[in-house]
Amino acid sequence: MRFQWKLVGTLAAAFAMGSVAAQTVKVGIIAPFSGPFAHYGALFKAGAEAYVAQQGGKLAGKEIEFIYRDEGGPNPANTRTLAQELVIKDKVDYLGGVVFSPNAFAVAPVIQESKTPFVVFNAATSDITTKSDYYVRTSYTLWQVTVPLAQHAAKKGIKKVVTAVTDYAPGVDAENAFKAEFAKQGGEVVESIRMPIRTTDFAPFAQRIKASGAQAVYVFLPGGPPNLGFVKAYNENGLKAAGVEFLGTAETDEFDLQKFGDSALGLTTAFHYSAAHDSAANKTFAAAVAKVNKDAVLNYATVGAWDGMAVIHKMIEATGGQRDGETAMAAIKGHKWESPRGPVSIDPNTRHITQNVYLRTVEKGAGALMVNKEVQSFGPQVDHGLVK
After folding, report:
1. For the residues 239-266, what does the mean pLDDT come to?
2. Across the beta sheet with 94-97, what order do the strands follow?
3. Where does residue 368 fall: left (phi above 0), alpha (psi -120 to 50 degrees), or beta otherwise?
4. Which of 119, 133, 222, 369 is the most exposed, having the fewest neighbouring CB atoms within 10 Å of its CB?
5. Could you write out the DSSP letters of every residue in 248-275?
6. Read out DSSP for 175-188?
7. b/e for 240-258, b at 16 or more Cβ within 10 A?
8. CA distance 354 to 144
9. Element containing residue 206 per DSSP (H, E)
10. For residue 2, is it left (φ>0), alpha (ψ between -120 and 50) or beta?
11. Sign of torsion, CA 126 127 130 132?
């Protein structure tokens, strides 16, 4: 892969300075720490710091210094500036974080020029990792979690589906993934609805879905109020009562799950992590995060940061703490470990995490709290968006 970007020469020069082994490794984390998406920053921070604490406060014998920068929201220009400052002024060894795909795309030239490994904790558009040789991702993509869900719907005998997604890059990815795979399975998407990102009233869309004659609706929405608003409309407009099955991904995320109340019961999603995942690694993760931040929610953001630091740990081992992006990236290709979500590895070609995807339904657990109960594993899934 060849890249044509040219930045000011200070990027490469700044990274080259101080290539000798250091006792402290600097990790810059870019995330929203203010505004409506600030919970992502708090959860990234909790997951990353909990991982280091669980390892005894050092990774491969090196002290870790975290430097946090606020991306705020979808703001590519600002995020690129933050990455440049972290590389040039702060001289970080590694970068991590980023919630929004447009921001990740904007940072790609910075890390390519400076050869700075960047671990994506969240941004889920498939082709992000193709934009720089120094990207690796520990979250998920919409193709990865949607393809097995479309296969499941077809196996259940569902023939007609409406897709209803928020109209921005991840939503389009989700729509394309479901439509492509469902068609392969002999199903029909009878209508594709793209909802404006600022939508607050989902009733008109729910009515269109009900009138379509579809047996199910495949949904993609950003976290927070849109999830609550759509599920409310799904129930109040009679879709659930009419037997229109809800098929989603992160819409019942643990950060919002308790806010739904009984309206979420029975909702079906396919995703790579549930706080209810039953494993020793997940129990260790939960205990470690609680020590760092007792209020932190265990969800895909927290586990993305935890596993992001597991990747950085491997890179520090490989480089002995030196700034050596090429050696670091070579070391993580094919790397395998046991995550709180289950067994995972880094695909050596796409640099995206290969992981189990689980079919989940919302149930009441201990203390009448809502949980995403894993009812089936679809087994290891690659990023189908990059291998389709």
Report:
1. 95
2. 58-59, 62-70, 24-31, 94-97, 118-120, 135-137
3. left
4. 369
5. ESSTT-HHHHHHHGGGGTT-EEEES--T
6. HHHHHHHHHHTT-E
7. beeebbbbbbbbbbbbbbe
8. 9
9. helix 203-211
10. beta
11. negative
Residue with tokens 């579809």: 214
Q: In degrees, to the nearest 5, what angle opens at C-alpha 355 toward C-alphas 59 and 313?
A: 10
Is the backbone of residue 379 left (phi > 0), alpha (psi -120 to 50) or beta? left
Q: Are strands 62-70 and 216-220 parallel, antiparallel or unpaired?
A: unpaired
Residue 230 forms beta bridges with which residues? none
Distance in Å from the first CA to the final CA of the chain: 19
Give CA torsion, residues 320, 323, 327, 332, to 10 deg.
80
pLDDT tier for residue 7 given thresholds of 50, 70 and 90: very low
Element (H, E) at 219: strand 216-220
Query: Whole-angstrom Cα distance, residue 128 to residue 105?
Result: 6
Stretch 251-271: mean pLDDT: 95
- Going from the N-terminus, what domains does the chain have, and what CATH number goes with each? 10-140+278-351 (3.40.50.2300), 142-271+357-387 (3.40.50.2300)
Could you tell me the pTM of the whole model? 0.92
Q: Which region among 160-174, 305-319, 342-356 has the lowest average model confidence (pLDDT)?
A: 160-174
Q: What integer pLDDT is reported at residue 255 of this predicted model?
A: 93
